[in-house]
Amino acid sequence: MTDWLTRYRDGQRDLVWHELAEIGDVRESGRLDEAQAVCDEMARRARHNVELIVERLRGEGFLFHRNDDERTPTRPHTPPTTGAAAHAAWLEERLGPFVLPLAPDRLHKENVSGGGPYGIVLPDGRADGLFRWEETTIPFVSYLNWAFQNGGFPMAGEEDGAREITNRLAQDLLPL
């Protein structure tokens, strides 16, 4: 059988993620390197999409800023450092199971008090970890694909031409 990475690149992404999910903890599977190669390719594609969305938003005149009264400018995307994996391992060791926050919930984004942050459930030995937001937990890659299909704004409404904007942002993004 052809390896997962080749099949992933050939468009069999859903099937590859399904097979990886069936394995469970890839660290114990004897196929960790192969699973890692798929995850690395997925991350490369996701980074491409994020950078393209940022470029398109800037082209639309979007200003990236903190959610403060001064609207302090900020970088919209900061790639992980080389120490990110070690930091995650340190957190897992000291905290046990937890949700690694990735973003504030939708209410906090609207400057209204809300719930807990969106994040990744850790520790998790699966190739496709779990993403938790509000009361929902789904595979992370499924969430990312949903987000990218909506131009990076999966919960955007229909008001003020939002769908037209998200469709432009989503054009030609890479599926994960």
Low-pLDDT parts are none
| β-strand number | 4
Order of helices and strands: HHHHEHEEEHH
Q: Which structural class do the helices and strands define?
A: alpha+beta
Task: Determine the strand fraction and express it as a percent band.
Answer: 5-15%
Radius of gyration: 18 Å
Instruction: State the end-to-end CA separation.
Output: 21 Å
Arithmetic mean of pLDDT: 87
Number of domains: 1
Sheet having the most strands: 4 strands, antiparallel
Discrete helix count: 7
Query: Share of helix among residues?
Result: 40-55%
Strand order across the largest sheet: 1-2-3-4
The coarse overall form would be globular
List key phrases describing it:
176 residues; alpha+beta; four-stranded antiparallel sheet; 7 helices; globular
Task: Summarize the SSE layout with pairings.
Blueprint: H1 4-9, H2 13-23, H3 32-59, H4 84-95, E1 98-103, H5 106-109, E2 118-122, E3 130-133, E4 136-139, H6 140-149, H7 162-170
Antiparallel strand pairs: 1-2, 2-3, 3-4
Q: What does this protein look like?
A:
There is one protein chain. The protein has one domain (4-170). By secondary structure, it is an alpha+beta fold. The longest helix is centred in the first third of the chain and has 28 residues, at 32-59. The chain is built from seven helices and four strands, in the order ααααβαβββαα.
